[in-house]
Amino acid sequence: MAATKTARPAFVCADCGWTTSKWVGRCGECQAWGTVDVAAPVRTGRTQAAPVATPAVPISQVTIESARSTTSGIGELDRVLGGGVVPGAVLLLAGEPGVGKSTLLLEVAARWARAGRRTLYVSGEESAAQVRLRAERTGAVDDNLYLAAETDLGAVLTHVETVKPGLLIVDSVQTIGSADVDGVPGGVTQVREVASAVIQRAKRDNIATLLVGHVTKDGSVAGPRVLEHLVDVVLQFEGDRSSRLRLLRAVKNRFGPVDEIGCFDLVDDGIVEVPDPTGLFVSRHEQPVPGTCVTVTMEGRRPLLAEVQALTVKSSTPSPRRTSSGLDSSRVAMILAVLTKHCKINLSELDVYTATVGGARLVEPSVDLALAIATVSAQRESAVPADLVAIGEVGLAGEVRKVSNLVARLREAERIGFRQAVVPAGSEGLDGIRTSMTIMAVSNIEAAMTCLDVTAPY
């Protein structure tokens, strides 16, 4: 008898839909790692009409009381979420190992439990005793906080049915697996199944849910891209290992603003919110120091003061070094080129080092003017006034462009104690603003240097 050929399984990329006849670790179309998995079987036939769970009603008759946000007890988290945690919402918190994700969520669980609401914390990475030790260290022990160490999806759902919590925390989604799905926990198929089951239960029982997600080496959320589409909110927890400062960013938010940030301080006995983080990114000098300039950047709707520093030294190599920390290196190179062209400053024989204070990451174009002033100040060894801030985007033609929310930036600088500001000319709101600051409006980079009197030669 002739042997019959068996159909080879097809594999598909969860991100872009690229298919292949054999499994590969990296998608050949979008070059994403770990997104190729066995394709679901194609079913033939048309879907028939089925009974509905609830009838459709006019949108004006839909009640919204059950969807109103509830405070989590942590002001910085509520700020990022747009007011609080919405019942039935599913949040995904991602961050590098050791950044403090579990510590933050344990604090959220404790605050929620102290308000008299039941909380279920499911740990798939640590034992219950290990979580209890950390809870005692951070003061997060409460009778309304229920703890379970599980790695099976069915057991997690059973705990939810038994405890009936108002808040569910799963740490982490990559460690939970389902016996009904092939693959190991953390794989594309398993993560998709676990997330779908937890989200379905959260929506059905109106349970606010927080999922912890791992990240890849480039900082993106590990697992299939569909995971970010399924959840309501995606939060990114960031921080430098050498610093205690931690930033919580909203990458996706169906209930509030996007790109809002919350600031936290990782201390020995837990994590503490920082309502006013401005002073963390500005260093105070007893005397004005050449090569420093303060700017005001916007993180979501929050203005933050940050200091830009520059250092220029005689280069000992034919190719001068251009090193930056906390700033976009390509944008730094562009500003140096503008200074060489329009301000006639020779930087071709100097090593230029630029950095920010406090580990701040500044990518907004409004930092350009402060960077240019700090660089010229370092090259001329002429200090910028300590009570001055510079805000503006610098173009390739040397023009200083307008920036958004200038009035809010100036008010924040005035609150901290700054009395002078260099801003783009023609900015909206400058005519009607009530401030004691001396505002210098400039239209190009040459005018900014003239106002600061840093163009005098050695």
UniProtKB/TrEMBL annotation:
Pfam families: AAA_25, ChlI, Zn_ribbon_LapB
Entry text on domains: The middle region has homology to RecA with ATPase motifs including the RadA KNRFG motif, while the C-terminus is homologous to Lon protease.
Keyword Zinc: yes
Gene3D superfamilies: 3.30.230.10, P-loop containing nucleotide triphosphate hydrolases (3.40.50.300)
Signal peptide start-end: none
Described purpose of this protein according to its UniProt entry: Plays a role in repairing double-strand DNA breaks, probably involving stabilizing or processing branched DNA or blocked replication forks. DNA-dependent ATPase involved in processing of recombination intermediates, plays a role in repairing DNA breaks. Stimulates the branch migration of RecA-mediated strand transfer reactions, allowing the 3' invading strand to extend heteroduplex DNA faster. Binds ssDNA in the presence of ADP but not other nucleotides, has ATPase activity that is stimulated by ssDNA and various branched DNA structures, but inhibited by SSB. Does not have RecA's homology-searching function.
HAMAP family per record: RadA_bact
Keyword Zinc-finger assigned: yes
GO MF term list: ATP binding; ATP-dependent DNA damage sensor activity; damaged DNA binding; hydrolase activity; zinc ion binding
Family classification: Belongs to the RecA family. RadA subfamily.
Species of origin: Aeromicrobium ginsengisoli
InterPro entries from the UniProt entry: AAA+_ATPase, DNA_repair_RadA, P-loop_NTPase, RecA_ATP-bd, Ribosomal_Su5_D2-typ_SF, Ribsml_uS5_D2-typ_fold_subgr, Rubredoxin_2
Entry-linked SUPFAM superfamilies: P-loop containing nucleoside triphosphate hydrolases (SSF52540), Ribosomal protein S5 domain 2-like (SSF54211)
Transmembrane portions of the chain: none
Chain ranges of the RecA family profile domain: 66-215
Keyword entries, A-Z: ATP-binding, DNA damage, DNA repair, DNA-binding, Hydrolase, Metal-binding, Nucleotide-binding, Stress response, Zinc, Zinc-finger
Lon-protease-like: annotated segments: 351-458
Protein name: DNA repair protein RadA
PANTHER family with a match to the protein in the record: DNA REPAIR PROTEIN RADA, DNA REPAIR PROTEIN RADA-LIKE PROTEIN
Motif RadA KNRFG motif positions after renumbering to this chain: 252-256
